[in-house]
Specification:
single chain, alpha/beta, Cytidine Deaminase, domain 2, 41% helix, globular
Length: 141
Amino acid sequence: MKDIEKAKQGLINETSFSLVNGDNVFTSKEPGVKPVLQLLESNKSLLVNASIADRVIGRAAALLMVLGGVKEVYGKVMSKPGYEALKQHGIGIDFDELVPNISNKTKTGLCPIEQSCLGIDDPSEAKRIILSTLSGKKDIS
């Protein structure tokens, strides 16, 4: 079975993020960009050539995945800006639903993290902006 298929199977119950890289598997119940940020900080090598399945992928998450060097990505829901970022960097893409943007929790506007990365193409710059945006918030999902 291909790694991306294994990663998709990892999205069960409350799991929101699943990474498979050969024999290495990492799953998380953390929302938003938290799992990718955690891996970038603590185990970046696990991201290199990895297959990731995530419940929601916006531009911010996509750029962090690009920064980590992932091979392919599946999103249950993916934003058009996230799709474009992955496509621009030659990452394999699969999704169930493509949406214009990722909304905030109350569905009254854009997700603040998604909004912070609109117009950003450099993954390193995106990470800096995401961390800056998160530092001003209590809940980063």
